Amino acid sequence: MKRIFNLLFTTTTFFEAIPNLLGNNSNEIQEQITIWLEMDETERNQLLNHSIDDLEITQRTQICLEKAKIYRLSDLVSKTENEIKNIKNLGEKSLTEIKEKVHELGLHFRH
What we know:
- This protein is mainly α.
- It has a domain at 39-104: Orthogonal Bundle (DNA polymerase, domain 1), CATH 1.10.150.
- It is 63% helix and 0% strand.
- The chain has 8 helices and no strands.
- The relative contact order is 0.12.
- The model is unreliable at 1-12 (pLDDT under 50).
- Residues 41-104 form the RNA polymerase alpha subunit C-terminal domain.
- GO terms for molecular function: DNA binding; DNA-directed RNA polymerase activity.
- It holds the Pfam family RNA_pol_A_CTD.
């Protein structure tokens, strides 16, 4: 915790601290944060309210999500990656497909 505190207060902005805090994934995470922050609340709510049909994922992946009662993006991102991984009949390819689509939208799973 002290390391995080020192990094945050020795840089001029939060975004300058991200590479030091997160290492190799920092640019990717910073891009997602920027996309999300640039949206207003209405845009975020509209995005989260989209059906998973709009993700353009394979039918197999979509059926797995629907059987798990995941119908909207808000349902999807309210889950952890581990919860998604444990959905019955959802394989590694489907998980990768979902993660890529979620990332493209600037979203992420719950931690």
